[in-house]
């Protein structure tokens, strides 16, 4: 019957139709088998149509079956499904959930099969309780932050891939709902995932049709972070300021709901975080003088205090060396305004002979030259280069003899593997991870960190804050404190606490490079319209291709 229906009505092969039916039909058959004695026979027939046995078929779809059972109001449906799998495979409840865990969490959180918004909201409201049920079965506890710790990045990546970058606008809005839910679930562990969450939220508020939801979730995230991990606020406050300035410029004359949300976020950042504000005030530009920002501007002015031109320039030099591209651009734009407003004072400073002033000018010019060499893969990067060039022009012809010469700090190539790994992670990859403008760059940095930590023998047991879900890993690693494990411990303890916090997810992450054909194996490495950055990448890849990892160490 299935074969005739598939070919006559749908116009496809029977096997193709069954493959599309199984994800929807199979969970219902497993759950209903206690009331329908034909259900098991139908499962056998479906397996036969797909040229497989029933047990491999139901095991392949285990995550979807468990998710379907957990969503059912009657808990007996879950117990029935677990009993069925026990009868067929001999596995107990813990083994069944362990086998399905990453994919099961993805099914519960990142489902895309809902169309009615009310139904989707109802399903999402039940998800925390379902995850607690899974945590209770696997760990005997309901510590959701600890339980989700090793899966949080994977869930965010899945939301990003399946929903936030989907063509369906409705799915993109739903993605922000899921992110908000995960922020709430991870309350005590949020500080570890600040860079990942910031990249996703910055992406959302950059899209006009997502700005309302994006700003709301950003405000919620900042409230949660300030409540659960106040020390982490210092790492987001400048980035959020840089992202919100364009909204203020755009809406300072036309009042809008977006402006209200932006003002609420700024009040949360400024009025409730005065100590952190004072520490990072040099990175903040003056905000537009509009009635809604009176209190915020007053707090910023009090934190800044009276400042001379030299004080302003020193703060600008610090801001120009900030790791975030948007913050650097925001600071250099303020410098450009300052140079034009204080033209005579700047000229007097340049013409002077005071040694301290020359040191300040040297630092400023060095920072601007570095800005001119900024990567230009993004519009902001291109604008930063141009504004830095404008600022150098506004400074005028400074006598080179007065400037302090700076030696380029180079890393010693002849070093141990562990010194090289530490240098790469601490000074380059962790910075790239924190400042990444999108998830592609951030995940690339995370992959590199993950692989370097593996080479050094760093495992999940080195993260003191890993929750109970990884207790088995801790027990396993406790018996092996020598060799690679001892080496990994020594490297791990060299990192600062903040860097440890940022790279901790890379101890248990499972990033993999996509398997793609190597386009550099044949043909020229230089092609028309190729950037220098792209050329140098192909050149290094071409050079390394014939070498195995031992040979690559000596390149």
From TrEMBL:
Q: Does the keyword DNA damage apply?
A: yes
Q: Which Pfam families match?
A: UME (PF08064)
Q: Which Gene3D superfamilies match?
A: Leucine-rich Repeat Variant
The record's listing under SUPFAM superfamilies reads: ARM repeat
Q: Where is the UME domain?
A: 144-250
Gene Ontology cellular component terms for the protein in this record: chromosome; nucleus
Q: Which GO terms describe its biological process?
A: DNA damage checkpoint signaling; DNA repair; telomere maintenance
Q: Where does the source fall among the domains of life?
A: Eukaryota
Major localization listed first in the record, in broad terms: nucleus
PANTHER family with a match to the protein in the record: ATAXIA TELANGIECTASIA MUTATED ATM -RELATED, SERINE_THREONINE-PROTEIN KINASE ATR
Protein name, per record: Serine/threonine-protein kinase ATR isoform X1
Origin organism is Rhizophora mucronata (Asiatic mangrove)
Q: What is the lineage of its organism?
A: Eukaryota, Viridiplantae, Streptophyta, Embryophyta, Tracheophyta
């Amino acid at each position: 019957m299935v074969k005739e229906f598939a070919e006559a009505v749908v116009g496809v092969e029977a096997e193709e139709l069954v493959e599309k039916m199984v994800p929807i039909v199979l969970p219902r058959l497993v759950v209903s088998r206690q009331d329908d004695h034909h259900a098991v026979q139908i499962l056998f027939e479906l397996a036969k149509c797909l040229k497989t046995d029933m047990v491999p078929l139901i095991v392949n779809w285990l995550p979807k079956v468990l998710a379907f059972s957990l969503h059912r109001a009657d808990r007996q449906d879950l117990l029935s499904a677990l009993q069925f799998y026990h009868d067929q495979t001999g596995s107990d409840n813990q083994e069944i959930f362990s086998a399905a865990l990453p994919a099961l969490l993805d099914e519960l959180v990142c489902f895309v099969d809902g169309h009615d918004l009310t139904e989707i909201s109802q399903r999402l409201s039940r998800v925390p309780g379902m995850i607690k049920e899974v945590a209770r079965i696997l760990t005997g506890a309901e510590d959701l932050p600890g339980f989700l710790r090793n899966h949080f990045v994977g869930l965010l990546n899945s939301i990003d891939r399946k929903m936030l970058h989907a063509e369906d606008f409705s799915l993109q809005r739903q993605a922000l709902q899921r992110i908000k839910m995960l922020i709430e679930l991870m309350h005590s562990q949020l500080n570890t995932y600040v860079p990942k969450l910031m990249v996703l939220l910055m992406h959302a508020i950059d899209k006009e049709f997502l700005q309302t939801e994006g700003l709301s979730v950003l405000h919620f995230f900042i409230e949660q972070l300030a409540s659960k991990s106040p020390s982490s606020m210092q790492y987001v406050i400048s980035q959020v300021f840089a992202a919100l300035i364009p909204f203020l410029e755009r809406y300072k004359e036309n009042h809008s709901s977006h402006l209200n949300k932006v003002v609420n976020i700024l009040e949360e950042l400024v009025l409730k975080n005065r100590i952190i504000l004072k520490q990072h005030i040099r990175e903040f530009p003056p905000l537009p003088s509009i009635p809604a920002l009176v209190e915020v501007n007053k707090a910023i002015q009090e934190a800044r205090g009276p400042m001379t031109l030299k004080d302003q320039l020193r703060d600008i030099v610090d801001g120009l060396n900030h790791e975030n591209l948007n913050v650097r651009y925001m600071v250099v734009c303020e410098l450009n305004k300052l140079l034009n407003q204080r033209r005579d004072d700047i000229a007097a400073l340049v013409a002077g002979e005071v040694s301290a002033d020359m040191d300040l000018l040297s630092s400023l010019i060095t920072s601007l030259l570095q800005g001119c060499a900024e990567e230009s893969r993004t519009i902001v990067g291109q604008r930063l280069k141009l504004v830095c060039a404008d600022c150098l022009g506004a400074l005028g012809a400074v006598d080179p003899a007065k400037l302090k010469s700076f030696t380029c700090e180079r890393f010693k190539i002849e070093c141990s593997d562990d010194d090289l790994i530490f240098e790469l992670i601490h000074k380059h990859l962790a910075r790239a991870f924190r400042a990444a403008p999108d998830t592609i760059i951030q995940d690339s940095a995370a992959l590199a960190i993950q692989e370097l930590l593996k080479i050094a023998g760093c495992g999940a047991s080195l993260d003191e804050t890993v929750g109970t879900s990884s207790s088995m890993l801790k027990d396993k690693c406790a018996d092996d404190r020598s060799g690679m494990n001892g080496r990994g411990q020594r490297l791990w303890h060299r990192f600062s606490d903040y860097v440890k916090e940022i790279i901790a997810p890379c101890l248990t992450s499972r990033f993999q490079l996509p398997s793609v054909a190597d386009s550099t194996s044949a043909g020229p490495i230089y092609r028309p319209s190729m950037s220098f950055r792209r050329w140098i990448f192909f050149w290094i890849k071409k050079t390394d291709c014939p070498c195995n990892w031992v040979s690559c160490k000596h390149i």
